[in-house]
Amino acid sequence: MTKQMRDESLIGEQEALAAAACLFHGFSDTSRLTIVQHLSLGEHRVVDLVAHLGLAQSTVSRHLACLLDCGLVTMRPEGRASIYALAHPEATMDLLRGAERLLGLTGDAVTLCPRHGAGVAQ
After folding, report:
1. 3-class secondary structure, 81
2. CA-to-CA distance for 21 and 12, rounded, in angstroms?
3. Which of 16, 21, 85, 114 is least buried, going by the fewest C-beta atoms within 10 A?
4. How far apart are alpha carbons 81 and 79 in whole angstroms?
5. What residue segments make up the domains of the chain, in order of their start?
6. pTM
7. Which residues neighbour 78 within 8 Å (Cβ) at sequence distance 6 or greater?
8. CATH of the structural domain 3-103, one choice from 3.90.226.10, 1.10.10.10, 1.10.357.20, 3.40.50.300
9. H/E run at residue 1
């Protein structure tokens, strides 16, 4: 393998890791995870999500925009409303089930992490 091929391979790996980090950022907020879990039940309007989740409309809209930008949800207009759905429901639920398995294996280690755990100010 030439140096150029190794360099190109390394750049490709770095780009893939950057994309993965962006994907996980989409899931890095409890409100976004709550929205994703609720959308796993089917399509919803913003007003429905606000009512079901007890979050402010601005909060729901901001998190939906993030999820939309990440390609995790889709939006289609219906009259004056926007209808949101998971873009890839099966893959999203597979990822969340995998996360649950990993959390089960790590026990309290993740939430007790001194850098990113539940007690750390964000």
Report:
1. strand
2. 14
3. 114
4. 5
5. 3-103
6. 0.80
7. 45
8. 1.10.10.10
9. none
> Structure tokens of 22?
């962006």
List, in order, residues 6 or more apart from 52 with CB less than 8 Å away.
38, 44
Q: Which of helix, strand or coil describes residue 118?
A: coil
Q: Give the pairing of strands 73-78 and 44-45.
A: unpaired
DSSP 29: S
Length of the chain: 122
Per-residue pLDDT of the chain (122 residues; tens, 9 = 90+): 777 767 667 778 889 899 888 888 888 899 999 999 999 999 999 999 999 999 999 999 999 999 999 899 999 999 999 999 999 999 999 999 999 999 889 887 877 778 777 766 65
- Sheet strands side by side (includes 44-45): 44-45, 81-86, 73-78
Structure tokens at 66: 């993030």
